[in-house]
Design brief:
Layout: H1 7-14, H2 19-27, H3 41-60, H4 67-85, H5 90-114, H6 118-145, E1 149-151, E2 154-157, H7 167-185, H8 191-203, H9 205-210, H10 214-231, H11 233-253, H12 259-266, H13 277-295, H14 306-313, E3 322-326, E4 329-334, H15 342-379, H16 383-399, H17 410-425, H18 443-449
Antiparallel strand pairs: 1-2, 3-4
Helix pairs in contact: 2-3, 2-6, 3-5, 4-5, 4-15, 5-17, 6-7, 7-8, 7-10, 7-16, 8-11, 10-11, 10-16, 13-14, 13-15, 15-16, 15-17, 16-17
Length: about 450
């Protein structure tokens, strides 16, 4: 007599199409090689993911992209093609075009096609929570042992496995995990799953604080507040008070409520009164990007050409670079190659055409996602997926004011945009598959069973 496969194996088989996406997420847990400038393991895996999805679609010819999906995902290609043709070199144009297509078109489209229902969506959301838990644990260990990136002369900044050259990597991963955990906690799943998700959300507050990333703090605080309000005002007040109280106890208990952390928080409201050098550099880079755009308003200066035009338009207050050290790496000086603002980077390199095409697609996803959120409220199903899908997009749109694409963690942006696209354009119509019910027995079979 053959034994039935274990339930865990059955669940793994049920999520088989999205396992390549899980693999991309899992590879971001690996340490980043020092001084690596090429594609990392997760980037290579994302390319294989797109290839796998294409082969699967050609063989099965199932679920092609809808016309709306083609338009939303294809909008950025117009501005990218024009900016690539206007680049100063063929290599820069092709390289920039490939990177943008990977992050904003190909990987999101692959995730959209591979996620079949809300169960797959939740599996990927839990994968993001697990990755955030791992990176957050590494970051807390770095803070406690003084082995993190350098911050104000001490090696205490939590950067996870990403190293000091990608100080935003861990904070991005932890923020995504926290948003997913909060969305799962506010859903209609069982009490045990919601309690586990809520515990993960609270635990992730600590590494997020120790990242000392003001942009991630602002984006996460705004997103989580909106998630709570979208879930319901009464639930928002209760859950918000509980998370705030637990966060204060957890962070204070680990000694994270230090003077450095308080000074970092205070600096958010003091950026115009007494800004530090990093804020000065950011403002000057923003001014440089705007000046570049004014000279090339429609199509920009070309992909990856911001550094070449930066010095000719930057104020004298701009420094030559930022210092990085710690987390297992020696001192190095990183050049400032972007304005650290995605909208201004696109505006400078792709012009108004590129910004309208790229941001227009994001706005369409936001409108569609919020519309499906309303349907989830009315139907009483899929609220957790709705809160996660809308939350990830709101976080990304907010964080893009302070950051742009770059570094090993960027591939996670592509995966998150894929989840956002799935919910906004397909999620409300693809609920969990109903469990198979055995066919009724015939009278002869019932007699034999007795």
């Amino acid at each position: 007599m053959r034994h039935a496969p274990p339930s865990a194996l059955l669940q793994l088989r049920s999520h088989a199409p999205v396992l390549p996406v899980v693999a991309v997420i899992a590879l971001l847990a690996l340490p980043v090689a020092q001084g690596s400038e090429g594609a990392g393991p997760a980037d290579v895996a994302s390319g294989l993911l797109v290839l796998y999805c294409a082969i699967r679609q050609l063989r099965s010819r199932e679920r092609p992209l809808s016309p709306v999906s083609v338009v939303v995902l294809g909008m950025p290609v117009v501005g990218l093609a024009l900016a690539a043709m206007g680049a100063s070199s063929v290599g820069a144009g092709v390289g920039g075009l490939g990177r943008y297509l990977q992050i904003f078109v190909l990987v999101p489209a692959a995730v959209l096609l591979l996620v079949r229902d809300r169960a797959d969506f939740r599996a990927l959301a839990w994968s993001l929570v697990a990755l955030a838990g791992w990176q957050g644990a590494v970051g807390v260990h770095q803070y406690l042992t003084g082995t993190g990136a350098s911050y104000q002369g001490e090696d205490i900044r939590a950067v996870g496995t990403f190293g000091p050259q990608d100080v935003m990597g861990m904070s991005t991963v932890v923020s995504f995990g926290l948003i997913c955990a909060l969305g799962l906690a506010l859903g209609q799943a069982g009490t045990r799953h919601r309690a586990l998700a809520a515990g993960c959300a609270v635990a992730l507050l600590l590494p997020l604080a120790l990242s000392f990333s003001r942009g991630a703090w602002i984006a996460t605080a705004a997103t989580c507040t909106l998630q709570l309000l979208l879930a319901g005002v009464r639930r928002a007040l209760a859950a918000g008070a509980a998370v705030l109280a637990a966060g204060i106890v957890l962070i204070g208990g680990f000694g994270a409520g230090t003077t450095m952390l308080q000074d970092r928080i205070d600096s958010i409201t003091q950026v115009t009164d007494a800004p530090d050098q990093s804020v000065v550099d950011r403002y000057t880079l923003w001014a440089s990007a705007v000046a570049i755009w004014r000279e090339h308003p429609l199509t920009g200066v070309g992909l990856k050409d911001f550094p070449a035009y930066r010095d000719g338009h930057a104020p004298l207050a701009l420094s030559s670079g930022s210092d990085t050290e710690g987390a297992g790496e020696g001192f190095s000086r990183q050049p400032l190659l972007s304005p650290h603002n995605m909208y201004l980077l696109v505006l400078a390199e792709q012009g108004l055409i590129g910004l309208v095409a790229l941001a227009g697609g994001w706005l369409a996803l936001l409108v569609c996602g919020l519309r499906e959120l309303g349907r989830a409220h009315r139907s009483g199903t899929g609220l957790d997926c709705a809160l996660i899908g809308c939350g990830l997009l709101i976080w990304q749109l907010t964080d893009f004011v302070y950051a742009d694409i770059g570094g090993p963690s960027t591939v996670l942006t592509a995966v998150s945009l894929g989840l956002v696209t799935w919910w906004a354009l397909a999620g409300a119509d693809r609920a969990e598959p109903l469990p198979a019910t055995p066919a009724p027995r015939r009278p002869a079979e019932q007699a034999a069973a007795r």
